[in-house]
Design brief:
Largest sheet: 2 strands, parallel
Strand order of the largest sheet: 1-2
Helix content: 25-40%
Strand content: 15-25%
Shape: extended
Low-confidence stretches: none
Radius of gyration: 17 Å
Number of strands: 4
Number of domains: 2
Mean pLDDT: 83
Distance between the termini: 29 Å
């Protein structure tokens, strides 16, 4: 999956979609949330939490790590030997 978020890294060279492997996802994210107030963001976050609680949104958590093992979590993520989310716990 390739996600383009913002232009801080400069422009992206042209991509030939026909040369990409099957199943590739290209996503452009607009950072429109910057105009939202903190209350609007909290409201949206609460809605997501409600979806998780009632099962509307299913999140697969593969592994959890204590915060001091963040480097190990990064290595595991980079190894592509994980499925689902990796959580760092304080």
């Amino acid at each position: 999956m390739f996600v383009h978020y913002g232009r801080s890294g400069g422009s992206i060279p042209p991509i030939n979609l026909w040369e990409q492997p099957d199943g590739i996802h290209l996503v452009r994210v607009f950072g429109n949330a910057a105009h939202e107030s903190i209350d609007q963001r909290r409201s949206r976050a609460l809605q997501v939490m409600k979806w998780i609680e009632d099962g509307t949104l299913d999140i697969l958590i593969d592994r959890t790590y204590p915060l001091e093992d963040a480097a190990r979590a990064h290595r595991d993520l980079e190894s592509q030997d994980t499925v689902g989310k990796l959580l760092l716990l304080p």
